[in-house]
Amino acid sequence: MTEHQRNISAAIDPVKLDRLAQVAVKVGLNLQPGQDLFLTAPMAALPLVRRIVEHAYKAGAGLVTPLFSDEEITLARYRYANDASFDRAAGWLYDGVAKAFAANTARLAIVGDNPMLLANEDPAKVSRASKANSLAYKPALEKIAGFDINWNIVAFPGAAWARQVFPDLSEDLAVAKLADAIFAASRVDNDDPVANWTAHNAALAARTQWLNGHRFSALHFTGPGTDLTIGLADGHEWQGGASSAKNGIVCNANIPTEEVFTTPHAWRVEGHASSTKPLSYQGTLIDDIRVRFEAGRIVEAKASRGEQVLNKVLDTDAGARRLGEVALVPHSSPISASGLLFFNTLFDENAACHIALGQCYSKCFLDGGTLTPEQITAQGGNSSLIHIDWMIGSGEVDIDGIGADGSRTPVFRKGEWA
């Protein structure tokens, strides 16, 4: 380890890092004795990976298989690869991952790379590589989107990411600040994070029960630049916090999480919406997004920054212009209260109510585990290669639930639960 690496490592509280690893295994995955684990991580996250592997084996894991990425290796492709490379992906690898998931292997992803890594690369090549990767990953992604297995995403404060969030600080101080923000948002900055998560999951469960009890047919969002009616899928079900995968294991897919979410009806969205936070997408910051929906489809999309990339995303496939998720997050959430833009959807989506372009989650249907893809489509669920969340909530947004009879019930007022 170099002196530089030692300084970065010293900036991260080892006790809280170990708590995060423990929460990832016990709360995020709820890893079962004998269950295998497949995990991916950037090389910078090795200290967290080592702790996760230790806690996984202590929990009785069968076999833990890590796969690492590296920012310089990623950039080398854009600098030196021939043009045809950008229409290819390692399908053989994803086929193996899909087989692992079919055999009940748990999935853990650690995020921590520089969110603007590809900012200076050819956007056409970035788009082509992303599409090729999405196509190759689809057999494995279907197991994730269908919630066939227990899976989880957590974060590690990579140095390049920390410099992006705190550009005016020295690198070691930026890492320390980002680490503290991650630990706070992930609820491991206390002596009993597992108990903290139990209480938090109970609060989210109470919200989902209230929403499921009302069985709204639509939600109406109003605020600056937004007047949007989102029809909800037939037989939709609200989810939030801990939930049961099809393999029967109760897990928390995202750490942190502050949202309750469900599936919109892909053909019943009308009106216009404006983003309330920038969207960081594959090295491009897309800001001031403004879209207009007709019959569920985005027919007009503008952005003050990153508009070209936004429209390339919307042209990915037939489902990319329709919604696959609507999520409710109070403006007073801890991540919103931090005032930080993390440049990472795992965190930024938990700062505000949001919608997602693209693929829906089958678990957000009553008896979703038994529905075929055709049945999900018939009930209004969307299908796409993408799933991209962006924020439309703020302290100025109101939301009404609309009943099947047209009745209106306050859900949010000024960004908070009514």
Task: Briefly summarize what is shown.
The protein has 418 residues and is an alpha+beta fold.
Write the layout of secondary structure elements.
Layout: H1 3-10, H2 14-29, E1 37-42, H3 46-58, E2 64-69, H4 71-80, H5 91-102, E3 106-111, H6 123-145, E4 151-155, H7 159-165, H8 171-185, H9 193-214, E5 218-223, E6 226-232, E7 239-240, E8 243-244, E9 250-251, E10 260-262, E11 264-274, E12 279-281, E13 284-286, E14 290-294, E15 297-302, H10 307-314, E16 323-328, H11 334-337, H12 345-348, E17 354-358, H13 373-378, E18 387-391, E19 398-402, E20 408-413, E21 416-417
Parallel strand pairs: 1-2, 1-3, 3-4
Antiparallel strand pairs: 5-6, 5-19, 6-11, 7-10, 8-9, 10-16, 11-14, 12-13, 14-15, 16-17, 17-18, 19-20, 20-21
